[in-house]
């Protein structure tokens, strides 16, 4: 898939664990893991907005397009 999710990178930069982000987003760690691994079929804009707010970043810091 040409869309790459760099959520692990942003979590490392912010020194935050996935579990902490999941709690702040009020989603299950399993659902966050699905998003992190790029297995999600989509992401809601309100979820993306909250991720950016919590991690103090832009959507482009999390999502990347690479041509196959």
Q: Would you give an account of this structure?
A:
The chain has helices at residues 7-13, 18-25, 29-36, 45-55, 59-62, and strands at residues 3-5, 63-65. The chain has a two-stranded antiparallel sheet. It has a single domain, classed as Orthogonal Bundle (434 Repressor (Amino-terminal Domain)). The longest helix has 11 residues, at 45-55. 56% of the residues lie in helices and 9% in strands. It has five helices and two strands, in the order E-H-H-H-H-H-E.
What are the salient characteristics of this protein?
68 residues, mainly alpha, 434 Repressor (Amino-terminal Domain), two-stranded antiparallel sheet, 2 strands, 56% helix, globular
CATH class: Mainly Alpha
**Multimeric organization:** single chain
CATH level-3 fold name: 434 Repressor (Amino-terminal Domain)
Q: Sheet with the most strands?
A: 2 strands, antiparallel
* Low confidence ranges: none
Portion in beta strands? 5-15%
Indicate the radius of gyration in whole angstroms: 11 Å
The CATH H-level superfamily is lambda repressor-like DNA-binding domains
What would you call the shape?
globular
**Helix/strand order, N-terminal first:** EHHHHHE
In terms of topology, how is this protein built?
Elements: E1 3-5, H1 7-13, H2 18-25, H3 29-36, H4 45-55, H5 59-62, E2 63-65
Antiparallel strand pairs: 1-2
Helix pairs in contact: 2-3
Task: Put the structure in a nutshell.
With 68 residues, the protein is mainly α. The chain contains 5 helices and 2 strands.
């Amino acid at each position: 898939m040409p869309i790459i999710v760099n959520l692990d990178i942003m979590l490392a930069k912010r020194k935050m664990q996935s579990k902490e982000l999941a709690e702040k987003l009020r989603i299950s760690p399993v659902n966050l893991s699905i998003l992190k691994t790029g297995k999600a079929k989509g992401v809601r804009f309100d979820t993306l907005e909250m991720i950016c707010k919590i991690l103090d970043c832009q959507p482009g810091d999390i999502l990347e397009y690479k041509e196959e």
